[in-house]
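WARN retry 2 of 3 for item q-0093 after timeout on previous attempt; input resubmitted unchanged.
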Amino acid sequence: MGFDPHIFWEQLLNPQYLWGALLSIGVAAVALVIATVLGFFLALGRTSANRWGSAAAGAYIWFFRAIPALLVLLIMWNALPQLIPMFKGDWYSPFIAASVGLGLVEAAFMAEIIRASLSSVDDGQGLAGRALGMTPGSVMRKVILPQAIRTALPPTGNEFIGLVKYSSLASVISLQELLTTAQVGVNVTFRYAEYYAVAIIYYLVIVTIITLIQGRIEKKFAWTSRAGRKLLRTTATETQVIAVRKARGEREEVNA
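OK item q-0093 returned
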């Protein structure tokens, strides 16, 4: 029994595969949003001077980095409704369970990415912003985050691609995503090569599109020229000098 091109093309144009691909992307996108928001606060906790906050964030990261994503999905779908009756309702779908479960796991990894990105921004940038009268929230939003985002974009894009592939684990909780769609066809026809080849094509297309979008976003945040980078360094240096002079002036007034 050889490879049948007719079956391959027929399944390649099957709307069920498109729906399965959209489900995979949807789970990955929702999980990444959850992971990014939660990971941001975990990163702040890790870098906090508060000992308890840092310990709690570190414990979360340690716990979810150690547990397999498949086990988390099984707990979210099978164990959680037993422990909390509200999750037995019809509203709690495999899509929600998979998105939240993968988001909780991914948050541990995003926390480290965000922490490293925030740490890559020179401390003088924040001090200069504070010296100019900016609030801590404004310094984070207008000074630190724009620079940290540029550093975090490449690994975040890689994590999103990984989540698209990890969404196939949700087949164990009855989510009919892309790989499950192919597996259902295989179980009926026993045509492994054709159905799995279609799944490969869809995954390649998805990853290619994500990579292209990621590249465009990275270019948007990249410095356009050496002159622009030199101007940024000069401006940052001048701002830090102003901050130092202002601080010295305040100390002199106090001493006087």
